[in-house]
Amino acid sequence: MELLNNYEVFVTGITSKESNSLTELINRVDELDIDSHVNISLLMSAGFGLGTTVGEFQGTVNNVLFHEKELSNANILHMKCTLGNVIRHWSNACRALNLNPNDVIWENVKQLESEYPEEQFDLFHYHESDS
């Protein structure tokens, strides 16, 4: 019991005031909304949506891999729809941050090319199966 009490004291000490108080959270959101060029409401929605949706996708993968659920057409369709929701929330995150989605992808391409220098992205390269 003492371990849990000590842990609770520790966690309380490292938890932000915004996490502990709705008033502090509202003040922080207001401050960010005034001081930035970011749509804070949309950013919150996108952040929560991405986390939830990725978790839902992971849950399906977890069930198939570790809990002997079928890799059925229904599960694949569910994952397909969930991936669509990831794109929707990603798009809203781009909107919230005033980012061009194409620029986000190009930044990712540059990052991946630096991590895998033997590979280069070619916008015009496609496979016969892609057409």
The number of domains is 1
Structural class: mainly alpha
Q: Compute the number of strand runs.
A: 0
Continuous helix count: 6
How far apart are the first and last residues' alpha carbons, in Å?
63 Å
- The topology string of helices and strands comes to HHHHHH
Helix content: over 70%
Q: How large is the radius of gyration?
A: 21 Å
Let me know the average pLDDT. Answer: 94
Q: Estimate the strand proportion.
A: under 5%
Query: Per the principal axes of the C-alpha atoms, what is the gross shape?
Result: extended
Question: What composes the largest sheet?
Answer: none
> Uncertain runs with pLDDT below 50, 5 residues or more?
none
Question: Care to describe what's here?
Answer:
- The radius of gyration is 21 Å and the shape is extended.
- It has one domain.
- 2% of the residues are buried.
- Helix 4 (40-66) runs antiparallel to helix 5 (73-96).
- It is mainly α.
- It has helices at residues 2-14, 17-20, 22-35, 40-66, 73-96, 101-115.
- The model has no long low-confidence stretch (mean pLDDT 94).
In short:
This protein has 131 residues and is mainly alpha-helical.
Q: How would the blueprint of this fold be written?
A:
Blueprint: H1 2-14, H2 17-20, H3 22-35, H4 40-66, H5 73-96, H6 101-115
Characteristics of this structure?
single chain, extended, mainly alpha, 131 residues
